[in-house]
Amino acid sequence: MSSFEKDEWRTVKNIEKEKMHARKTAAKTLRKDVRINIRLSSSDIFNIKQIAAYEGLPYQTLIASVLHKYAAGHLDPK
């Protein structure tokens, strides 16, 4: 908010082109075209389901989101 209040934001040139680019990128990123099967411990699934319920997400969506973030380098491996 402080960035906005300092008038640091600038109008995007050719907003329609940028919006189309963002839509195409999102479609490619969100496309789920491969199915996998994994085995997890029941305690891990229990914990994941609790977290997903708290976040208001289906647990499989949460798992896919975490895997995507990790694969994209947005989660640090520890």
Describe the structure.
The chain has helices spanning 2-5, 15-30, 42-55, 59-71. It is elongated and about 50 Å long. It has 78 residues and is mainly α.
Overview features:
78 residues, mainly alpha, single chain, 4 helices
Question: How would you sum up this structure in a few lines?
Answer:
The protein has 78 residues and is mainly alpha-helical.
Show the helix and strand layout:
Elements: H1 2-5, H2 15-30, H3 42-55, H4 59-71
Overall outline: elongated
Percent helix: 55-70%
DSSP strand content: under 5%
Broad structural category: mainly alpha
What is the straight-line distance between the termini?
A: 32 Å
Number of helices: 4
The SSE order reads HHHH
Q: Average pLDDT value?
A: 90
How many strands appear in the DSSP assignment? 0
Instruction: List segments where confidence is low: pLDDT < 50 over at least 5 consecutive residues.
Output: none
Q: Characterize the biggest β-sheet.
A: none
Gyration radius from CA atoms, angstroms: 18 Å
